[in-house]
Structures are given as structure tokens and as C-alpha cells.
Here is the input.
Amino acid sequence: MRIRDLEYFIAIAEHGSFSRAAQACGISQPTLSAQVRRMEDLLGVTLLERRHGATTITTEGAEVLAAAREILDAFHRVQRTTKGDGVILGRPMRFGVLPTIAPYFAPHFLGALGRMCDGHEITFVEDRTDQLEAGVASDHLDFAITATLPRARALTAIPLGEESLVLVSRDPLPDGMSLDAISRPLLLMQEGHCFREVVSDAIRRAQLRCDVAGPARIGPSSFATLVSLVRAGIGDTILPEPYARGAPEAVAGLSLSRLQPLTEGRQLYVIVRAGRERYRDVTRLVDAARDAHRLASGIAEDADDAAVPPKVGDPMPMRAAAAKAPAR
Here is the structure.
């Protein structure tokens, strides 16, 4: 029996579904079912029962589940006593990224990660913060890129980089805009997305400063849809500056203005299990992630150039670059 078999069984128990567990583990459902049958044959007991589409754990399965968790905990303790070489790199890797970060971060990061993994398979998933944290805590994910400090004490956050915010509008905007000066409806992401919380916190701070703020509407779950609503004149929205830099065709013809004060923004983190931040291969991962984020943010490597990052509107302060989006 392999450690991975125990991880598969625990995943089914935690997700309550073969299909969801297979998705979380990055394998097909038939493969997962075959692994469980192999484990049942090896142990000589029935671990799971499927009735009317629901998956339940048998009495024997509950005992095996408790033992499997103890074995995995012990295995991870052994890992944390090593110097870290090969614990994360040098094998297939699976990591998670917030959907509000992946579009501009993943293209820069995956190439560097592939070179470090020596040809091993790399899989990344996009999910919400709570699911990413759960994946790292259970070792279904090796690490995650998020924008909030983890709630679980079993996890550690390593700072990755900071991001400024930009206001996006169909109407002309001045160079530098504060939330209390916005009069049009402000479109936000759906509840549950951490980027919505970032913007909501900025709105609350604006209300404390000036006792006014533009009306907000709950919007969709993707930046692309937010931008399409802005283009349709439904309202304005706020995006991370690296997204606007990395997708000029998406915001072509729209006005962009860096949100004021410049302290408004978000901090990104690499989330790992506590103790692994000391590993040398985790240090290499974090360095590669920081380089990828700098590239996505358009920050020059030269210190003199990086001291004053170009503004979103440069060299067109009132409009985004006029690249034409393909006809649809």
C-alpha cells in the first residue's frame, strides 16, 4: 500500500464524493475507484458504500480512515525533519492559484517551475481561498498562491509581492482616482471571492475618510465579465494593476486610473504547510514566484527603473493601449 492510496481514501472521505475527490486529486474517477478497490482487496474489508449517488464510510472504513490520517501525519513529520531537498521538487507537483491571480501570474511562473521540476508533471488548479488552504493542509496541494493570511495554524504564509489597484471605466478618468470621487455604480466580484473583500475594505476606508462612496453592485465571478459590463456602460470596476498590464487587449479602449491612495492594494502570499518554509526547494519556489510576479507586474529588474514604476496609462494616460480585440 502506498501513501498516495491513503491520500485518495482520505480525499473521498473529506469530499463525500468520488467525482469531487478525483477532481481534487487530479486523477480520473475510474482510476480513483480502481485504487480504492485495490485497497479494499488488500485489507479484506469494505471501506465505502455507494447508494443512490451518495458515498458513505463503513464502520471498518472509519477505523481505517483514522489510522490513515495518523500515518500521513507521521509521514509529514518525517518529511519536516529532512533538509528539504526533493520534498517538493523532483517529483510530480500540484499547486493552486486564486482565479484572480492565475491569468497573469501562471504564464510567467509555469515555465520557471517546469525547469526546476526536471520534466515531472505539473498541475495547477484555480479555486477559492478556503479550498486552496484545505488542499495545502491535507497535502493534496504542495503550495498555493493566495491574497490573505491563512486561518489554519498548520499553514504558513510567505510574502510574494504587493499589487496596486486600478479603476476601469468607459468614461475618461484623471491620472489617479480615489474611491470617494467615483459617482458611477462600482461593480464588484461575487461574495466569497477574496478580491471582492480587498475592494470592499478599500470602500470602507473611503467611507471613513469622506463619509461617502459610490454605490456598489454585486457582479460576476471573473475579471473578463466585469470588464465586459464596464464596456457595456453598466458601471465601473477595480482590477489588480498586473491584470490590466498583462491583458491590454481585454481593456483596450477603456480608461484606467491607478487607485488613490497608493496604499490601496493587496498582498500576495505563497502558502505552505508550517515548517516547510525552511526547505531549500521551497525557497527556490518562492524566488521563482517572486520573479514571475515582478514580470507580470511590469517591474524592471534594474533598480533605477524599478524605483519609479510606470503608470498604468503611460504612454496613453487617458486610454488603455488601443489593441483591437478579435471580432466575436
Remarks:
- The first helix runs from residue 3 to 15.
